[in-house]
Write a structure and sequence with these properties.
By secondary structure, the chain is an alpha/beta fold. It contains 15 helices and 16 strands.
């Protein structure tokens, strides 16, 4: 029996990009020909229907996140068909938040005004840097001027909830470069900023041919300066890499870190569904390559991917690994509600870390201290049973 108390979201993956960035380990594929928009949308909706039937899903959704790839390559007409189809299959709850990832270089005033008219009310723009020098080093297809213009077009199109993705620790970066990027971003008045450290992920060009990165002391110093600058301008540090104005945290990300449920449709999409607690919490995944994903849809009754229940012995680690990324942390009540597990085996370890100053206990919530955030991996090993 599905728990109606656990919130449900929807993640939609659109896998195409104009170019594969050398640091990117997401499931993205360079456009080699015209994108099969109409066919892909039809497959997405069929995929969603099969998920709903497979998991007997009856809950409504409060947020949709359309990620990629570069979803903003899709036309407003394709997005209209997609969202209309989703709404026919799943009830929408209240003032739903619909996020669309977008990259500078795909921004056209008329198209983004149409996106807004469709009900898409949050944009996440992949800026990475406002420096042409670093954008070239990152293999981005846009320039600094286009990055600024993209945000201006978004505001003009009526978007009042905008996230900007930025990176620090870039190849050849010097002291103050990341702070300048953050200052430029703040001046553009987004409601949310995501700040990620560049990491060399397996199966990427940068992993095979690693660029020269700044030393750890400089990276750490830049991160701290950027965090202070964001705090001074009213951006709340609510998750390790996320900063939002009050009441503007990303609903999809919050649901993910709070161990909520979400359906995942599209090539390579992942999902998590709670069917019963604690023994039937299921991770799902879909066929990765878009060509194979669409080809498999020729068999409409065949599930286009796979699923596996999370082992009960792994639930504590999964929950805590997610929840401690949040500045607010978690309560024991939420642990019970999302995992169905007893807390007795957990409380001694939590108490020990509070005594060591790695965790704080405040307002019935456990959360990482400032020191604990730097030793999160050490904390998590305690819960890997």
């Amino acid at each position: 029996m599905i728990s109606t108390e656990i919130p449900l979201g929807l993640y939609i993956h659109i896998p195409w990009c104009m170019k594969k960035c050398p640091y990117c380990d997401f499931n993205s594929h360079t456009i080699s020909q015209e994108m099969p928009e109409r066919r892909y949308v039809a497959v997405l909706l069929q995929d969603l229907l099969l998920d709903i039937q497979r998991f007997q899903e009856t809950r409504g959704i409060s947020h949709i996140f359309i990620g990629g790839g570069t979803p903003s390559l899709f036309s407003a007409e394709a997005m209209a068909t997609l969202l209309a189809g989703v709404r026919q299959l799943l009830p929408w709850q209240g003032q739903i938040e619909i996020t669309l990832e977008a990259n500078p270089g795909t921004f056209e005033s008329s198209k983004f005004a149409e996106y807004r008219a469709l009900g898409i009310n949050r944009l996440s723009i992949g800026i990475q840097s406002f420096s042409d020098r670093y954008l070239r080093r990152l293999g981005r297809v846009h320039c600094a001027r286009e990055a600024v213009q993209a945000v201006e077009i978004a505001h003009a199109a009526g978007f009042d909830n905008i996230n900007l993705d930025l990176m620090f620790g870039l190849p050849g970066a010097a002291a103050g470069d990341s702070q300048q990027d953050i200052a430029t971003a703040i001046a553009l008045q987004p409601t949310h900023i995501s700040l990620y450290q560049l990491t060399l992920e397996p199966n990427t060009y940068f992993h095979k041919f690693p660029p020269s990165l700044p030393d750890e002391d400089l990276i750490y110093s830049e991160q701290r300066h950027c965090q202070r600058l964001l705090a001074d301008h009213g951006y709340l540090h609510y998750e390790i890499s996320a900063y939002g104005k009050r009441h503007r945290q990303c609903r999809h990300n919050l649901n993910y870190w709070q161990f909520g449920d979400y359906l995942g449709i599209g090539a390579g999409a992942h999902g998590k569904i709670t069917r019963s607690l604690p023994g039937d919490i299921v991770r799902t995944w879909k066929t990765r390559h878009p060509d194979h994903y669409m080809a498999n849809s020729a068999k409409p009754t065949t599930y286009n991917g796979g699923s596996q229940a999370i082992a009960t012995t792994e639930l504590s680690l999964e929950f805590i690994m997610n929840s401690l990324r949040l500045h607010a942390g978690f309560s024991l009540d939420s642990y019970i509600a999302r995992t169905g597990l007893d807390t007795s085996a957990l409380e001694q370890s939590l108490s020990t870390y509070v005594q060591q100053g790695l965790l704080e206990y405040h307002d019935r919530h456990y959360r990482c201290s400032a020191k604990g955030r730097d030793f999160l991996d050490q904390i998590l090993t305690e819960f890997a049973m």
